[in-house]
Design goal:
The chain has 343 residues and is α+β, with helices and mostly antiparallel strands. The protein contains eleven helices and 15 strands. Strands 1, 2, 3, 4, 5, 6, 7 and 15 form an eight-stranded mixed β-sheet that branches.
Amino acid sequence: MTHVVHQLYETDCSRWDDYVNRADSSTFFHLSGWAKVLKRAFGHTTYFLFSEKAGRIEGVLPLAHVKSRLFGSNLTSTPFCVYGGIVADNEEAASSLREAACRLAEQLNVDALELRNTKSSEPGWPTKDLYSTFRKEMDSDHDVNMKAIPAKQRAMVRKGINAGLISEPDEGSDRIYRVYSESLRNLGTPVFSRKYFRILREEFGDDCKVLMIQHEGQDIAGVMSFYFKDEVLPYYGGSLAIARNIKGVNDFMYWELMRRSVDEGLRIFDFGRSKNDTGAFKFKKNWGFEPAPLYYQYYLVKSTEIPEVNPMNPKYQFFIKSWKKLPVCISNRVGPFLAKSLG
């Protein structure tokens, strides 16, 4: 009996997620909820494929079609997510999904099919060497975790503590959005819509939490994190400009997230991806995390080379410098129209 590839419908979501939760190489970004998030928040058409044999799911591949006049047309697993690609129990299931994805990419006539793999899995496909990810096991003892942070960054955590910073969980999304949107404007990056943050909270519930950092009763930083199996993934974080006047704000924020996660019984702290040799990359290394390369691999359809829709592309530098000068109220209004196509 051969594998048959199907497209995900509402009635199969629980089966899909049961598979994702038991598969060894799955990630938070393989959950079926992303199909709803991508459609509701951005209007993107999704093609979540699963490979079935004898009525049993043996592999999944979440895909979405992101098309834009500015940034091209791509079929991606998974847009707006750091991980994606094929998760399968065996090569037969993986091969059926790979072939189905390539056929779909050709039917849609996209520039490229992009699989955001944590490991190289498509021999011969062009691979982007741009990102690394940072993951580390946490100890159940807070003192052990604190001592594992290199001395310089550990001192920054303590400065944050001594400055009177406090952490506070938040049930909504407005507070983190205010902080995050200003932070992205300052970096020259278009921000997502407020609606996107609200939908993430609605769709993933307790697996999507917000932690705010306050100083003297005022929000100055915050992070939205995802929770999957025994992992915590700080994902959308930022700080206000006034936080620069206080030492150790970001270090304190991630320490508090780590401390609270240990108390919740979690084991892995996933610091997520960063572009190689950037400030964020060095910050995570300085926390004692070792980088592991990510393998973003491409099946080229219309394009003759790997798409480069990222801030490292020189053609976007003028745009980035100009964006930093916009008032936050303007960047928050215009940004979502651009951000939804950046994927």
